[in-house]
Amino acid sequence: MDARALLFGSKLRIVATVVFGLGLTVGGAFLAGVVGVPSVERIDNRFGDVNETDTAIETDLVVHNPNPVGVRLGNMDVNYTVTMNDVAMAQGTKRGVGIGTGNSTVNLTTYLQNERIPAWWTSHIRNGEHTDLAVSANVKSGTLGRSATFQPATESIDTDLVGEFNSSEDRPVNSNMALVDDPVVVIRQTNASWGTVTDSETPIRIEFGVYNPKATPVAISNVGYDITMNDVQMGSGETEETETIPGKTYRVVETRTVIDNEQLDDWWVSHVENDQTTELRIDFYAEIEPPGTDETFRAELDELTHTETIETDFFGTKGDTASDDTDDSNSTEDTTTTTTSDEQSTTTTTTSTSTTTTTEENTTTTEDDGILALDPLFATSSVVSPTTTQ
Question: Is 349:331 a contact under the CB 8 Å cutoff?
Answer without folding.
Answer: no
